[in-house]
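Example: Permease of the drug/metabolite transporter (DMT) superfamily.
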Amino acid sequence: MTMNIRVISAIALLCLVWGSLWGLVKHILHVFPPFLFISVRLILAGLTLMIVQCILKRSILPKANEWPRLIILSALLCFGFYATQTFAMQFVDSGLSAVLVFTMPIFIAVLAHYILHEHLTRQKLYGLILGTLGLIAILWPQLHHLAFNVSLLGQVILILSGFFWAISTIYIKKYFASYDKIKLTIWQFLIGGGVIFIFALMFEPVNLKIWFDTSNDLVLFYISIIGTGFAFALWNWIVSQVDTFIASISIMCIPILSLFFGSVIWHEKLTTNIIIGAIFILMGILLSSLKRKTRNTHLEQIHCHK
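Written out as structure tokens, the predicted fold is:
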């Protein structure tokens, strides 16, 4: 399928939304307690998608035998990915956070080899090496001086967050390949968001004044409804319009945009290590993805000639 002006515009909009989101999340974490924020974000996004599902007149409630796997998936995504990411971003700049979390496709290359039996090709291996070199470059100042601090801890947790994102993606491919993706995300968000919300109320302070501040609420609603709910719906539409590979590669500029927004808007420092590391990681992701497309295209050509 070819890309038309609507698809290109949608991709550009999605990249701008997700690219700018990291800085806004970093900003809002100075206002809201981290886990109360992430739980409200997930719940609002889930409810937004539920409204969309109602408008589309599609099924909302899962079947009884679907709940166990939905709960596992929700734990992987909401606790393994969103909660760890939000916690770590308190100590790491937004642009660098995006770069570290977007190592997810590299992790997928390894996990898919063993779990989905997708062959780990030589180019995927080269991509892993490039990604690893990028991580070493970014973490080198801390590793070089062997000084453990909250910044290093945050960076390690963000990489772990990307790893859990990869696991949840593999889990979806294995068990929810043909499942309604909007309904799937509704319950991913609501189950995990609800549990995190309960724990947040138990262990985090609740200052009602900040929740009734108009500017804070506007940012929160943008992150939740636009950056999470709407962006997910837009992403699904893009994938339905073009090849999945094209859609995946098209959003690889998000970490670069995050670094740009972080530097220009939030005045975050761009060190040489971060720039070099980001380039290596993006090269690794691109190289790993390109091989998958090349192989699939070759198989399609063989099939067409039969």
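Residues 5-305 form one domain.
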